[in-house]
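Researcher: Next entry in the queue.
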Amino acid sequence: MSPFMWRNLAGLNEQRYFMAAEISMIIANFEIQDNVEDLNRVQDKILLAISDYKLRKMGNQGKDVYEILEKKYLEYMSKERMAQKVFCGFESVVNACGGIIGTIGRLLSEVSGIREISDIEKIFNLWGRWVYLVDAADDYAEDKKYDHFNPWTLKDTPPNWENYVYCLEKEAGTLINYLPVRRYGDLLKQLYVIQLPERRRRIFNKLYEQTWETI
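Model: Structure for this entry, 215 residues:
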């Protein structure tokens, strides 16, 4: 992709990246809540996001985003009223963000200048499932440490989950090679790293900076 094409992503198009990243985080949260605090946080985040997009009055650029959020929120609340939360298995956590790819792809494919849309989708997919896997696994480890029983936590986490998470960390740290302009890597980093536990945040920041040193 030429530098000229990437310059076309400035201004409103860059704001569309923010919207796509935000919606990926929110929709991913529909799939994974491993404790009650997560559940409450998700509901608050969805409602705030819907209000925020409406207040921006971005026309068609924002309309599709908050309409998706509203629809997902209504579907989510309907399911919650009908049944109790089921146990969240390890494989469910690993694959939980897969469902957001179609939405992200549709949003980003409308941005002028992007041709390698599959590369952008890979970034959202990997970073999204990594963030939520780390959060769930850390909660599980905390419960295990203090011998708590929490029906919201992972029930079948394999003993080597730390190695799996580390592999995802390395992938996430190097995946920014797909982005030829650093500011887009920085943009995605800002949106994702804020969701991480402090320990993982330090690891990710280190990996991220090491990656850019080698490019």
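Model: The radius of gyration is 18 Å.
Researcher: Noted, moving on.
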